[in-house]
C-alpha cells in the first residue's frame, strides 16, 4: 500500500471484483430483496471465480491475501448486492478467517478447502435470543463434555447464513461458573443430528442474506472440533470481533458509493423548472457532502484494515486497534446513514417507493448501527481504551 492510497494491484483487484459483482451479483439483487431469496448455487459460482477464502492460505484453496484486499472485495460486492456481501463476510471472515487463525491443522485441512471452493457455506453462531450485546455473559447454550465428545444444547438468534450454512463456528458455555469466560468454540456441521433451523427471519433490509434462529438439541460434536483452546473461546470471540468490525466496515462504504452514483445519475437526468435538478445549489450541496463523507470513510477504512496486518490476529481485542476497529465501523455506519438520507431526499418520491434501488439501500443501512456490536457498545469500547491510557 502506498503512503496515500491503494497500490496498482489493489486497485486492479477492486475493479475486477466490481466487474464480477456488477455482472453476476447485481442481477440477483432485486429478487433477493423482494422474496428474501438466496440463490442456491451462488457460493459455488463465487468460489469458482476465486472470490472465496480471500485471507486463507493458498494451500487450502484460498487467495492468501490480506485483510485490506479482503475489504476491497466486500466493498465492491456491496456496491451491487449488499445482501450477498453481508453473507460473503459472514462466510469468509467470521467463519473461515476465524477458523484459519484459531483452528488446529486438522480442522483447517478438513473445512477450509470446502469453504474456499464454495462447496460449504459457513456461518458464525454467537448471538442468542436473550443475549444481545452481552453475548458471552448471557450465553445459555451449554456444552457438556462426555468422553471424547461434547453434547450441545441451546439456541442461536440472528445468525447470518444460518439456514444455508453447512458448518457453523459455534460458541457454547462449557464451564457454567466462569461468567463471560468458560466458553468453547466448536465447528459444528449443520447436518448433525439434533441441529435444526427454527425459523428464517423476515427483515427490513439486507433481505436475501439468510438470517435465522438455530436450535441444538443434544448435538454431539467431537472434541477434535474445538477451535482454539477448550474453555477459552472468549479469546477467539474478542480477537474475531475486532477483525469482524474492520472487515465489515467496507459494506457501508460500498453502499454509500452506489448511493452517490445513483444520486448523480438522477440529479443529471431529472428535470424540474426546465433544467436538471443537479443545477440547483441545494442539490449540489448534498452531492458535495456525500462525496466528502465517502472519501473520509474510504481513507479511514483502508487505514485500519492495513493496520491490522501488523497485529497478531489471535491477540486482538485490546489496545488501540480495539478502539480503532470499533471507531471505523461506527463512523462508516453513521456516515452512510447521512449519505442515504441525502440520496433519498435527492430522489424525492421515487426514492420512497419500495421497489427502487435507492430505497433498497436506505432500508439496509440501519443494520450498520446494530450488527457486530451496537453504536453504543462501540462508543464504550472507544472511550474505555482512550480513558484507560491515563
Alpha-carbon distance between the termini? 33 Å
Q: How much strand content do the residues show?
A: 15-25%
The main pleated sheet reads as: 4 strands, mixed
Question: What number of structural domains do the residues give?
Answer: 3
Please state the overall shape, judged from the principal axes of the Cα atoms.
globular
User: What would you call the structural class?
Assistant: alpha+beta
The CATH architecture of the largest domain would be: Up-down Bundle
**What fraction, in percent, of the residue positions are helical?**
40-55%
- How big is the Rg? 21 Å
- Mean pLDDT rating: 93
CATH superfamily of the largest domain: Butyryl-CoA Dehydrogenase, subunit A, domain 3
CATH topology of the largest domain: Butyryl-CoA Dehydrogenase, subunit A, domain 3
* Spatial strand sequence of the major β-sheet: 1-4-5-8
CATH class descriptor name of the largest domain = Mainly Alpha
Low-confidence stretches: none
Q: Give me the number of helical elements.
A: 10
- What is the N-to-C succession of helices and strands? HHHHHEEEEEEEEHEEHHHH
Query: How many strands?
Result: 10
